[in-house]
Each structure stands twice: as structure tokens, then as C-alpha cells.
Specification:
Layout: E1 2-7, E2 10-15, E3 19-23, E4 32-35, E5 38-43, E6 46-49, E7 58-68, E8 72-78, E9 83-89, E10 92-102
Antiparallel strand pairs: 1-2, 1-5, 3-10, 4-7, 5-6, 7-10, 8-9
């Protein structure tokens, strides 16, 4: 059984036991959360596609950790104008472990 869930503006295909990295969620480490935006649900050969969401379907997950990605260099330059700007960016993320999928 797997599901397609939407969180943080992105879609993820998840199954029970999967570990995924999503945009930062406000939840404590070790606590359970529920992802309610289930777009598709597949149980064996039976596929349920939502319009836009599958009614009553939920995905249970546990927060494993919070962290930040590696450093990304942002460099801007305009030729012949003596314009150069260098910045860095590190995106926050949350690691989730999927504990269960419940269908409608």
C-alpha cells in the first residue's frame, strides 16, 4: 500500500516504513503528526484518486529530526558593471518516518 501526499508545496510517494525529507514542519522531535492532504491511495490493485483529495484518507508519520541542508552559494554578477554579490543559503527541513496509511 502506498499513497501520494502533499506537504510544503511538494508531492511525495510514501509507504509504511519510508523515511522522507520534507520542508520544515512545526512539530517536536519524536512526536507523531498526521498528513491529511492525500492525493492518491493505492491498496494492491485498487487505486483511489482524489478530486483533489481522497476523502477520509490520512498518513501518520513520526518526526525523526530537524536539520538544515548543505550550504548553497548564490552568486550574482553583471558584466562590465563592477557588480558582484555573494550570498549563502541553507534550507531547513524535517525528516519524517511514515508509520501508517489509513484509507477511506
Amino acid at each position: 500500500m502506498f499513497a501520494v501526499v502533499k506537504t510544503g508545496g511538494k508531492q511525495y510517494k510514501v509507504a509504511t516504513g519510508d523515511i522522507i525529507q520534507v520542508e520544515k514542519l512545526v512539530a517536536e522531535q519524536g512526536k507523531g503528526i498526521e498528513l491529511g492532504e492525500v492525493l492518491m491511495l493505492c491498496d494492491g490493485g485498487k487505486v483511489t484518486v482524489g478530486a483533489p483529495l481522497v476523502a477520509g484518507a490520512k498518513v501518520a508519520a513520526e518526526v525523526v529530526s530537524h536539520s538544515r541542508t548543505g550550504k548553497l552559494i548564490v552568486f550574482k554578477k553583471k558584466r562590465r558593471q563592477n557588480y558582484r554579490r555573494k550570498n549563502n543559503h541553507r534550507q531547513d527541513f524535517t525528516v519524517l518516518m511514515i508509520t501508517g496509511i489509513t484509507g477511506a
